[in-house]
Amino acid sequence: MTSFIIAHLYPNLMNLYGDRGNLICLQKRLEWLGYDCRVKSLDIGDEWNFADVDMIFMGGGSDREQSLVYDDLQCKKEELWREIKNGFPVLFICGSYQLLGSYYLTGQGFKMEGLNYFDFFSEGGPKRLIGNIVVEVKNNNETYQVIGFENHGGYTYFNDTTLRPWGKVIKGHGNNGKDHTEGIIFNNLIGTYLHGPLLPKNPAVADFFIRVMMARKGINIDSGCLTDKIENYARQQVLAKVMKIKS
Amino acid sequence: MKQLRIMAAVLIGKAVLALSRLWGNQGTVLPGYWARKVYPSILKELSAGVKKETVIVTGTNGKTTTANIIAHILRENGETIVHNAAGANMITGITAAFVAASDWKGRSRYDYALLETDEANVPLLLEEISADLLLITNFFRDQLDRFGELDHTIDLIKRAVDGSAIKLILNADDPLVSCFAQESGCEAYYFSYDANAYDQNDSQENREGRYCMVCGAPIKYEFFHYAQLGKYYCPNCGNKNPQADYRASDLLMRPFVQVSVNGNRIQSNLPGYYNAYNILAAAALADHLKITPVIIRQAISSFRSTSGRMESISVGDRECVLTLVKNPAGFNQLLSAFANDGQEKNLVLILNDNPADGRDVSWIWDVEMENIMREDRHIKKIYCAGQRSGDIALRVKYAGWPQDEISIAGDIKQGIEKSLRDNSELIYIVCTYTALFKTRKILMRLKNSGYSPKNRYESPLSEH
Ligand SMILES: [Zn+2]
């Protein structure tokens, strides 16, 4: 049986607000499609081997934890960037999304260097951006409404105008609360402020990653072969609530 | 002049209290709000009148139950106390409690003040009140919407107690709490559980404090009591559990907690490890207040949990156990309490996302929900309801429950009635904060109307 391994980066440091829901989701959906999927934790000091894993996931953490992670990533950063350019599937949320840019200047004036893969930066804003969020993204050549929750003190701005935000904010704040952009997408990498159960609530995004993982193993699947009855109910429930509220 | 302002503030507060009660409200916050409007220093003045000691109880989990047990012990000892009501634990609620307990001239009539408050509110409270004791139960991730991250909150409390004469009563088993005294320099007393039969070698429940608070290196555990509570040490800097002043040994949960605290054998009516800690914390604090072991033992054995923390309501021949959950640790505790209880049961999970519940429901993904699949939990059916019934149903689905066997209703009333019609005699109804009151009301109306699910009697609630 074909099996998949998803690397969970620094699960003990970067795992705020139910981020692991995303791993549970990918694991279960692959299982329902008839495949085996394991989550492999990679902590500080662990060796990585990209040949052994099919996807990388990293969640959010506090400022202190984010800088511990940055130090550990120094010796892996070149290899990770090479894989990202080659289309390796990657999902980075909140703090780990900020790490992809050049720096994050916290509200307390503490500057944390980023991996500098992309020319964007983050800085502490006047207030935390908190609440339900709806983002319109292009997924599989269709428009899809991504639903989630954001809670971040960092405001992210793109210097490089050729960078592609992941989507357009319909309700909520997104990267900085001003330019209606949310997250970043590059090849098969997504960085986003939507924390918690992003993938279970947005099965089309989960299936995007699953399709990429499969294609890299030479397998093609039809999307939509799982029944997303409860997913759709949960999406409608939140949409109805959120779209009613004046922004 | 000052005396006049105090009297005016107390009178206004008492008038608002009387009016609120007339309108059927409990009046736990508004009297405080108005008294502070009239005289902003009112809390400072009234709290100076406490005859013996002022105690603050804080922490993420268990502070309400712990404070309630302490209140019960003090009353059994014949003391008069000021004790703010559950849910009224911000500064206005605490002011309201003092207004209600003072006479109309603003003179004190109380031996002790027992103030339960959220972690983030402690610094504010200490600005107005000079407290003698601060009890910290534990620090778990909670209340994300309002306070941001845990580190920050802990830091704020540290700064607030720094250099003051306040004494600390701390949980030696929680690495986030126990290192608290070292940096604040306050006098501290610790309570701790000895190793016992309920411990585990590994804890999946919670990752708080897995890194040393002193040096940042990963800490190691000899064993876990539950979540991050256990016997730990830091291989890098030597940080470890402080020596305990109050040691709990010979723990038994059948399912109610029995434990010896420094040799004083206590039998309670409360189940679960989280209550074992509430009992230990309360016993430690009461001992510190020089209450005798006999009174402590008798008071705890006569204490019963109130107001829906876990409340049983029978509707016809159905036994409904109503439980409040607000974070993963509490939910996990509930699911592990089902283990080996030998009782078949249905679950009704009600998730709301009002500000008081937490607008962010992401935390349900940190619950070890997979435990619902275990045979020793004896769960037959699952119903989901509330404003975010879809989210909780999704969590249940991804825990492995067959999706066609998850019953979903947006409406709480509908969800409860559906579950009552099923033929299980025992129903656990698990609610977030705002869902709890609504659910309780619905159950009481059904109970009092003689609703019987067996006779297919049409519910009085469905009539319009
Ligand atoms: Zn250390």
Describe it for me?
The complex is a heterodimer of chains A (247) and B (464). Chain A is α/β, with parallel strands linked by helices and 247 residues long. Chain A is 28% helix and 32% strand. Chain A has one domain: Rossmann fold. The termini of chain A are far apart. The model of chain A has no long low-confidence stretch (mean pLDDT 91). Chain B has 464 residues and is of the alpha/beta class. Chain B folds into 2 domains: 245 residues, 3-Layer(aba) Sandwich (UDP-N-acetylmuramoyl-L-alanine:D-glutamate ligase), CATH 3.40.1190.10; 155 residues, Mur ligase, C-terminal domain (Protein-Tyrosine Phosphatase, Chain A), CATH 3.90.190. Chain B has 16 helices and 17 strands. In chain B, the strands form 3 sheets. Chain B has a 9-stranded mixed beta sheet. A 6-stranded mixed beta sheet of chain B has the order 12-13-17-14-15-16, sandwiched between helices. In chain B, helix 14 links the parallel strand 15 and strand 16. Classes of the chains: A alpha/beta (247), B alpha/beta (464). At the A-B interface, helix 1, helix 2, strand 7, strand 8 and helix 7 of A face helix 14 of B. Bound molecules: zinc ion. Zinc ion binds next to loops of chain B.
Q: Strand order within the widest sheet of chain A?
A: 2-1-3-4-12-11
Indicate the proportion of strand residues of chain B: 15-25%
Q: Which shape of chain B, going by the Cα principal axes?
A: globular
Report the CATH topology name of the largest domain in chain B. UDP-N-acetylmuramoyl-L-alanine:D-glutamate ligase
Bound molecules: zinc ion
Query: What is the number of beta strands of chain B?
Result: 17
Class by alpha and beta content of chain A? alpha/beta
> Using only CA atoms, what is the Rg of chain A?
17 Å
Q: Give the overall average pLDDT of chain A.
A: 91
Q: What would you say the CATH architecture of chain A is?
A: 3-Layer(aba) Sandwich
- Gross CATH architecture of the largest domain in chain B: 3-Layer(aba) Sandwich
Roughly how many Å apart are the termini of chain B? 58 Å
- Assembly classification: heterodimer
Mean pLDDT of chain B: 86
At the fourth level of CATH, the homologous superfamily of the largest domain in chain B is Mur-like, catalytic domain
